[in-house]
Amino acid sequence: MHDSSTAFSLSALVPLIVVFPLFGVILNMLVGKRLGDPWAGIIASLMSGLAFVIAVLQFVGLFLDKFHATTITLAEWIVIGTLKIPWAFQVDTLSVTMMLLVTGVGTLIHVYAIGYMKGDERFHRFFIYLNLFIVMMLFLVGGNNYLMLFLGWEGVGLCSYLLIGFWFDKGAGGVGNARAGRKAFVVNRIGDFGFVLALFLIFWTSGSLIFNDTFKYFEEKGKEESKVTAPAPAAAMPEAKPEGEGGAPSLETIATAITLLLLVGAAGKSAQIPLFIWLPDAMAGPTPVSALIHAATMVTAGIYMIVRSNVIFHLAPTSQMVVALIGASTAFLAGTIAMGQFDIKRVLAYSTISQLGFMIAAAGMGAYVAAMFHLLTHAFFKALLFLSSGSVIHGVEHGHHASHAHGGHDHQDAHAQDAHGGHHVAHASAASPDHQAESFDPQDMRNMGGLRKQMNVTFWVYLIGAIALAGVFPFAGFWSKDEILASAMAKGQWYGLTVYALLSVAAFFTAFYMGRQVFMVFFGGERTDAAKHAQESSWVMLTPLVILAVLSVIGGALNLPKFIPGGEALGTWIEHSVEVQAVDFNLTVALISTGVGLFGIFLSYLVYGRSPMMTMTDPLERLGFVFRFLNGKWYVDELYQAIIIRPIEGFASFAAFALDWDLWHDFFHDTIIAGGFRWFSGFLATFVDKGIVDRFFDGLGGFVRETALNFREMQTGYVRNYALMVLLGVVAVLGYFLFVR
Amino acid sequence: MVPTSYYILLSAILFTIGVVGVLVRRNAIIVFMSVELMLNSANLAFVAFARAFQTGNAVNAAAMSGQVFVFFVLTVAAAEVAVGLALIVAIFKNKHSIDVDQVHQLKG
Fold first, then answer.
1. Do both A471 and A353 map to the same domain?
2. Residues A450, A579 within the same domain
3. N or C: which terminus of chain A has fewer CB atoms within 10 Å of its end residue's CB?
4. Count of domains in chain B?
5. Given a cut of 90, is residue A532 above it in pLDDT?
6. With an 8 Å Cβ cutoff, is B78 touching chain A?
7. Which of A587, A621, A655 delimits the end of a domain?
8. What CA–CA distance (Å, rounded) separates A115 from A37?
C-alpha cells in the first residue's frame, strides 16, 4: 500500500497485538490450572499489557508515518475466484484508536479481575476467556476486511456468552446465569443474521470485502451517479432512478439495504432497540466482564462498524436517519428504565444501553468523531462505574458475611475483620460475589446506603464516574455528550431536532439516575448489617479504578472544542481514516445540557439526598404505576415473550406435536411407511412365502418322506431277506447276461 | 463215464439246497453249513468242467484253472469259517442264542 521510506516500520509489529493475548490464552490453557491464583491472572494481564504496548507503538508509528493508513498482510485466508480475503491488519487512526482503547482498558480490567476473582474455583479459566476476548476484539477492530471484522464479531460474542455464563451454576433456579448467556447469544444471532446478509450484499455489489476496495467502489459509484443526475436535475426527475428501471436497483437502494442490515447487526451487538434486551441480563457475568465486554469494548463494536462503513452510510440518507432515530430512542427508553431499577449493575447496564444510543445516534448523523469521542470517554467512565460497583458489591458481600459470622459482637467484630480481612474476602468471592443466597442480594441498592464511610476510595471514584456520566463540566462525559447534542442540533431538519430532544431528555435521565444511585448507595444511613460491615476492596482492585477515574476526569481533553488551543485533537486524528464533518462548539447547547444535567442531579438530591432513604422503600415508588412500569423495564421482555417467544413456542410445539409427532411420526411413519411395510411383509409372508414357497418345499419334503417310509419297509433286519435280495440280484444279472446280451 | 451234465445238475441241486437253507433256516450253524454247501457245489462244478475240458494228458490252461480254483475256494472257505464261527460265538455271547432272526438291529 504505502511505501514506507524507513527500513523498519512500526506498523509491521501489528500482528503481535494479537499474538500476545493469544499466547496468554494458550499458556493459561496449558498450565493455567497449575499456576492458579493469582499467577494465571498476572500472565493474562501481562499479555494484555504487552498488546497495549504494541498498540501504543502503532500510535507512535502513525505519527512517524504522517497518519498514512497501512495494511499488513500476514497470509491469504480465503481465495475463491474473485473473492480474496487475506489475514491482514489495517493500521489507521480509527483502528489504532480502538486498539488503544481495547488493550488499555482491557489491561486495567485484567488487573482489577485478579483481585475480584481471587479465590474463584475457575480462576484461570476466567483469564483464558478474557484474553481470548482481547484477541477477538483486536481481530474485530484491526482487520482490513469485513470478514475479519465478522470473525472478531462472532469471537467476542462467544466470549461474551462464555463469560455471562461464567458462574453457570448460579442465578435463579441454578440456571439463571446460563439462561442469561443463552439469551445474549440468541439475541445476538438475530443481529448477526442481518450483518451476514449485509456482507453478502456488500460482496455482491462491490465484489470485495476488503475495506479499501469496497469503499473505493462505493465512492466511485456514488460520484458517477451524482454526475449523471446532477447536471440536469429537471431532466432526470421523470426517470428518477435511471438504473432502477433496468432491473438492477440503484446504488442508493443497495446502500440503504446494506446499511439497514448493518444496523440490525449493530443493534444486536450494541444493544439497541429492538435487540437491547440481552444486555441487562448479561450482568449475570462477573463484574469485570460487565465492565470490559458489556460496557467499554464489545458493545461498542456496532458503533465502530458503522463508523468504519461511513462511506456506505453516506450513500443512504434514509438509513442514516433511521440509525439516528433508533439510537436516540434507545437512549431515551433505556434512560427511563434505568431510573426504576434497584440492582446496582442493572442501572449501569441500562445506562450503558442509553449511552450506546447516544453513540449510535451520533454515528447516524454522520458525527463520527463525536461518536468515537463518546465511545472513548464512555469506555473510561462506564468501566470505572462498573468496576467500582464490583468493588461495592464485593464490600457489601464481605460485610454480609462478616455480620453473619460475628453477629452481635460488634466490638470483637471490627477487630476480627482487620485481622482476618484477607481471608474473608477470599471466602466471599469463593461463594461468588454476584448472586448468591436468595435471602440477601448484595447487588440490591436498597441493601446499601452510607457506604461513603466504609469504602472511601470507591466512593470518590464512583462519584467521579457518575459526574462524568451525568455530563457535568468539565468532566469527560460533558465534552463528548455535548458534541453529540451539538451535532444533532447542527443537523437541523425534523429528525435532527427530534434526536436532539430525545437525547437531551435522556441526558436529564442520566443525571437523575446517577444521582439516585450515588445517594442511595453512598449517602444516608446503612440500611442493613451488611452495609454497616462493608469493607474497602484491596489495592489491586482500587488501582485500576483510580487510573480510570483520572481518565474520566481528563478524557474530555481528547477532543476539546476548536476554540481551545489543541482542540479537535481526536477530530484531526480520526480525519485520516473517516470523512469528518466538523461541528462547532455550540454554547447554547452546552448551557442547556449542563443545565439539564445539573437539574437532574438536583432533582435526585431532592428525592434521595435531602432526606436519606431509611427504609427499603424507594420514594419514587409513590409514582405508582409509572414506577412499576419503569421497574418492569417497560415490559419489553414480557412483550417479546407475548408477541415473539410465545407464538414461536406455539409454532414450535405445533411443529413438534402436530406436524412432527402426529403427522410425520404417527401418520406418515407409523401408518404409511411402517403400515405399508407391515402389510407388504404380511403379504409376502402369508401369501408368497407360506402359500407358494413353503407349500412347494413342504410337498417336496412330504413326498420324500412318504417314499422313504415305503422303502423303509424293505429293511427288515433279517439276514435272509438280504440274502434273498442278493440272490435275486444275482439271478437278475445272470438273466441279463444270459438272455438279453 | 458219467456225463458232465449230471455233475452240473448235481451241483445245481446242491447249490439250490444251500440257497434254500440260507434263506429258510434260522440256526446260524445250519445257515453256515448251507453256505458251505453252496461253495462246495461250486467246487463240484469247477471240477466237472475241468475234467470236461481235459484233452488227453496234456496240460490244459482251462482244465488246470478249474482245478486250481477249487483250492482257492477251499482256502477262502476255511478263512470264512474262521471268521464266521467267531461271529457266531460273539453273537451267542450277546444273545445267548444263535437264532439269526434275533439279530435284526438293521431293521429300518
1. yes
2. yes
3. C
4. 1
5. no
6. no
7. A621
8. 10
More confident residue, B53 or A463: A463
Size of interface A-B (CB pairs under 8 A): 31
Give the closest of A713, A716, A720 to B22, CB-based: A720
Residue A8 confidence (pLDDT):
61
pLDDT at A294 > cutoff 70: yes
pTM: 0.74
- Of the two residues A492 and A653, the one the predictor is more confident about is A653
Whether residue A586 sits in one domain with residue A549: yes
Which residue among B100, B103, B108 places its CB closest to the CB of A712?
A: B108
- For residue range B42-53, list pLDDT tens digits in order: 999 999 988 888
Cα A83 to Cα A78: distance, rounded to the nearest angstrom = 7
Residue B22: closest C-alpha in chain A: A720
Do A551 and A612 have their domain in common?
A: yes
- Joined together, the cell numbers standing for residue A166 give 461464567
Q: Please, what is the average pLDDT of chain A?
A: 84
Region A560-579: mean pLDDT is: 79
* Same domain assignment for residues A647 and A614: no
- Residue with grid cell 504494541, as numbered in its chain: A54
In the predicted structure, residue A383 carries a pLDDT above the cut 80: yes
Residue A596's domain spans which residues?
317-403+441-621
Residue B81 domain-assigned (yes or no):
yes
Cα A13 from Cα A591, distance rounded (Å)? 45
Range(s) of the domain holding residue B69? 4-102
All 3 cell numbers of residue A508?
Answer: 436529564
**Quick one: cell of A15?**
500482528
CATH value at residue B83 = 1.10.287.3510
Residues in chain A, total: 741
Question: How far apart, in whole angstroms, are the C-alpha atoms of residue B89 and residue A209?
Answer: 111
